[in-house]
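haha ok so turns out i had the wrong file open the whole time. this is the CORRECT one, sorry everyone. sequence first:
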Amino acid sequence: MTSADLLAAYDAQLREGSEMASADSFDRAGPMLRGVFGDRGFVSYRDLGGASGAALDALIAQTVEHYAATPHIQAFEWKARGHDVPDDLPQRLVAHGFQPDDIETVMVGEAKLLADPVPLPDGVTLRRIDNQPDPLADVTRAAETLERAFGHGFGVDGLMRRIEQHPELIELWVAEADGEFICAGRLEYVPDSEFAGLWGGGTVPEWRGQGIYRALTAARARSVVGRGVRYLHSDCTAMSRPILERSGMTPITTTTPYLWRR
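then structure:
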């Protein structure tokens, strides 16, 4: 498939309803769906229905008012893609009090292209940890590993809730050496689609450059191929992009989370 074909499949299969698959609840407001995930909100849409200028400002303001009126919501995300229109959407979000997070590249590719086993350093093993009778201790350790890898916290409660409520949609994988987790990443299946997502993959600094992230990606790719999934997608950092690109994934757009906090 061409990049344009992959982008069209991404818009059709990975936005709007699919992004609400693990939501506690969601409702529709015009062109968008407004979801609730614990104490956070998330809006999703395939397009903004041609809204621009004052109409777009009104839509943004109504969305802020909706979440602000929900007392337990502490923050919500408006995830803008690089090909979204109108072009001034980012400036309008900032004017309404949103703060942009880091821009990432959306990568899409055939899962089978990433599935070949990758040699690991001596003493390093891979395993899936969400499918235990009581995964909390290992999920906590995985979150701590990702905090070391990325420099910011990862919520254990929200991840555990999703594992408990939708075990068929999520897998959590780790690389381990001498009893310590050194890399972690999750896999999220998208219902009624050809896709699964690679999320949160990160290696602690002292183990980088040894193929561990690539090996963890390959393990997750083999898992989705075994379930008949065709494509993998990832919102990746500048550090991950060249690894995924060498494996055969294609950059199709960018994504920037715009965050509103109470």
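The CA atoms of residues 54 and 60 lie 10 Å apart.
again sry for the mixup
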